[in-house]
Amino acid sequence: MAVRSQRIIDGGGEVTMAEPARALALATLADLWDRGCPVASPDDREHLVDVGLRRWRSFQRRHPRVRQPSHEARIRDLVRGLVEANEAAPRLVGPLVKDYECVAEAIAAAAAS
Fold this sequence. Notes:
By secondary structure, this protein is mainly alpha-helical. It has helices at 20-34, 45-57, 59-62, 71-86, 96-112; strands at residues 6-9, 15-18.
């Protein structure tokens, strides 16, 4: 039985994705938070996962000329998307980019599962 992605509008008008990849990514980010990753905050976790999964899945559409992207290229793209979606001044992220890379790897692993 295949599990399909579902988009659900909750009472507040927010669109969320109910699926196993999302649940796995949320659990992994909770673990990252417990291990000290400041980016995986409980306050931003759902937003990070929703943005990350959407960005990961739209890579081919946004980069049609890249026939076989490397994993590293997709992670860099995902990090960029997460930073742009969550930081007021993306160019000033500095050392936090390493934490965004950890979050991006976790989201990519969940999307691939």
